[in-house]
Amino acid sequence: MTAQSALLPALTLLLSSTSEVRAGTPSSPVPVTPVTAAGRATEEDARILLEDARLLVAEKRLDDAIPKLERILERHPGSAGFTEAHWLLGTAYWRKGQPARAVAPLRSYIEALGRSEPALRARLLLARVNLELTQVSEALTLAQEVENAAAKATKNKKSARIDPALVQEARLLRARAWIARGRLDDAERSLDSVRSDLAARGDTSPLREEQMTLRLAIQLKRCDRYPPLTEKRPNWDEAQLADLYQRRGTCIAESLPLYRDLLALPAEPLNGHSREARAAFSAAYSAFHSSCRNPPAPPVEPGKKRTKAQLQAYLTERQQLLDRTCEIEFAKHLGLLAVLKESTPEKNRSELDELQNHAQSLRSSR
User: Is 80 exceeded by the pLDDT of residue 71?
Assistant: First the structure.
């Protein structure tokens, strides 16, 4: 009978390598690995898969990274990089535009690491995922957990301080959530706290760009109140109606200086926030155009009922008024965008080209 070599269990504490994909990587769970050739080969396979996946995620080759990460989770649950693989997989799915598939791995990562700083970073990413899935309450809860953890660490002198940038990002996410719920005043208060803190620390990080982008989104959202369509059949005369649409155009125009300041930031590139700001402007122009093409219905006057022909004549008159008013406003905006482009750094002028083209197409389609 051939003697078999005894299997001696060894408890080995393995620290995962530092990941540079959006967050620091924590210590992985402690595996109990048999010291055998097969065991070493399995651990080596997991290590190679993880290193390859890190590189692929960093290079944005997400379709290649995801199968490797899935393989680690399926075949190597006791490996040193098992926890990190959850973070990378959640990040990859989020970047790939599949937020629903990012939820489970990010939750597993958070559960494994509790209240550590890497887990707080994961909460912020999961909050962004939740917002994309319109799960606003969940996003608010996660952002609040990060702020609470930072406040607790500040009070406890023995605890390691939490990176202040995490707190600011949590507040930015809260602002996004409030915007999604239409609570613009609450969103502005969150942004005010971020702006004052960043200014005090002289912070020029992407957080400043995001704060400016969200403030711009709030300003544009406020322009939707012209005309106030929540009123039931308002009795506006022609002058009042024209004034309301002119106010809406002016409101959008007053947001352009903030857009200019965002495009003038020295960041290279602008971390997607310039595109987000352009999308907000495009949506504002589209909503304005839609409002211009749909005049308010006439008020209901007691004891007076319009015939079908009278109603059509009323709407035709109002449409002609709005056509003239909105034509002037869109022409004004195209001129302002042309001036804005001249003072915008070359690297960001393409953003204005896209916005100009969108505004011009809306103007032409009227």
Answer: yes
